[in-house]
Amino acid sequence: MHTRSVTGMITAVSDPVWRVRFTRAELPVPSSPLPGMAQFCAAWPGWLAESGVEPGTPFLVSPSFGFDVVLNGFFREPTMRAAAATTQSGYARNVAAFLSFLWSARDRRSWRDASEDDHLAYLVWRRRDPDGPRVAGATWDREVAAVNRFYRWAVRRGQVQRNPVPQVTRRPAGFGAGWAGARMWDE
What region holds the Core-binding (CB) domain (predicted)? Predict the structure, then answer.
């Protein structure tokens, strides 16, 4: 539910989640379009092509309906664009979940200000809190991998000073340990 001011403008959102959306190849033209809307919709496919944004590319919208150009640039990086659509969608959902936690449980903290303490609080809520979702280890590992990749990208581009996901160096597993011996946990 939205809160409206005296002027009728939306001023607050009671659903504090980041939303995952996907670019569309074509935009529908409303039956009663505003001036210039039909031309905008007609030019959309060309703009996508010129900008290098492929239809189906995920993007995130903040709880206050904001679009962060820098944050969403992550989904346009070459290795992300080369990933399968399901991988892109999964990364977008996992990053959105962490950002939603920052927004709702950490006093609307910006992704640029996230700390290790925020990540540890997210871990406790996701895995151990009786009121949290209590996700399985494999689910947590996948979520952390997505958030870690996003923040490593942001650090490389100078958008954040440090990655809130603790970076742990692991000893290699002994000979014959197989893949299970080399498993990485973020707990």
Answer: 63-155
Taking each helix axis from N to C end, the angle separating 85-105 and 116-123, rounded to the nearest 10 degrees, works out to: 100
Residue ranges per domain, the chain?
A: 6-167
State the pLDDT at residue 165. Answer: 98
Burial class (CB in 10 A: 0-12, 13-18, 19+), 133: exposed
Is 122 within 8 Å of 129 (Cβ atoms)? no
pLDDT at position 72: 94
Q: What is the residue whose two structure tokens read 């002994």?
A: 174
Give me the percent of the chain exceeding a pLDDT of 70. 83
Counting other chains too, the contacts that 7-11 makes at CB distance below 8 Å and 24 or more residues apart are: 10/65
Helix (H/G/I), strand (E/B), else coil: 59: strand
* d(C-alpha 145, C-alpha 143), whole Å: 5
CATH number for domain 6-167, candidates 3.10.560.10, 3.40.50.1010, 1.10.150.130, 3.40.50.450: 1.10.150.130
Q: What is the pLDDT of residues 33-76, one digit of tens each?
A: 778 877 887 887 887 778 777 889 999 999 999 989 999 999 99
Q: Do 40 and 56 form a contact (C-beta atoms < 8 A)?
A: no
